[in-house]
Specification:
- The protein is α/β, with parallel strands linked by helices.
- It folds into two domains: 124 residues, Rossmann fold; 102 residues, Rossmann fold (3-Layer(aba) Sandwich).
- 40% of the residues lie in helices and 17% in strands.
- Strand 1, helix 1 and strand 2 form a beta-alpha-beta unit.
- Helix 2 runs parallel beside helix 4 and helix 5 crosses helix 10.
Length: 260
């Protein structure tokens, strides 16, 4: 007898840069059973980078396409592009997606701020593969949202090929070089780096929470979908729920739970 596929507990929709090669394997590896991850791509980095305001029509179209797949939460999942133009533009991206879908939506920037708020982490060490100018703008975004970057480390790498070439152990070494007793948490900014693999090891070494773009986004999406899973290997964040001040950005089309 043919076995029927298991019903979906939740569906996560991600809009990612076309050059990204790590988000999908990381989400597929760590998403709990019954949680489906659906992805669409936009050309938005490197030679295709344009101001965030010019991306809005394409973001709306991509979000609507993921809504067609009955995704319960949809994310504009690019750390730099979601934070680069400031908190107000981040909110505008969210409103654009919400208007296009009527569903809960996030950006990587909003997911990171929700994760940091849940951890009660206000003073941060921020580490990224980006150019210093990009990291400075991310620090400005975080400051607008009430966080302080006490140390900032930018590797100034040229693009995705260089980002994914950095092995997990190297991110551990870099974080230890930037250890700061004033920091409440360590933030690894970028969806296309091997940082999700080092979270628990580094939390033990530094005795601080470690937050990464893909980990924080997966956590936020699961919590927005009413999924309380505590996932192994993903650190202190996954013992927590969304902050009380957080609210779903849009209304769920149907109640959460097992469905086909």
């Amino acid at each position: 007898m043919e076995q029927k596929p298991s019903p979906a507990r939740a569906r996560i929709g991600l809009i990612i840069p076309s050059s990204n090669r790590l988000t999908e394997p990381q989400f597929q590896r760590h998403a709990p059973p019954g949680v489906q991850v659906h992805v669409t791509r936009l050309r938005m980095t490197g030679p295709h980078k344009v101001p965030a305001i010019d991306l809005l029509p394409r973001i709306a179209d991509a979000a609507a396409a993921l809504s067609d797949a009955q995704c319960d939460v949809i994310v504009f999942h690019c750390t730099a592009n979601s934070m680069d133009s400031g908190a107000e533009m981040g909110r505008r991206i969210i409103e654009t997606m919400r208007s296009a879908t009527g569903r809960p939506v996030e950006t990587t920037g909003s997911a990171l701020t929700e994760a940091l708020s849940a951890l009660n982490a206000r003073k941060l060490v921020s580490i990224s593969p980006y150019a210093p100018s990009v990291s400075h703008r991310e620090s400005a975004y975080l400051a607008e949202e009430g966080f302080e970057v006490v140390r900032e480390r930018s590797l100034d790498l040229p693009g995705s090929d260089a980002y994914i070439a950095i092995p997990p152990d190297e991110w551990v070494r870099i974080a230890q070089e930037e250890e700061d007793p004033d920091a409440d948490a360590y933030l690894f900014s970028c969806t296309n780096i091997h940082s999700i693999d080092i979270i628990e090891d580094l939390e033990k070494r530094l005795d601080r929470p470690v937050v990464t773009s893909n980990q924080a986004t997966l956590w936020t999406c699961l919590r927005q979908c009413g999924q309380p899973d505590v996932l192994p290997g993903l650190g202190r964040l996954f013992s927590l729920q969304l902050p009380a001040s957080s609210s779903a950005r849009g209304e769920l089309v149907e109640p959460q739970g097992a469905r086909s």
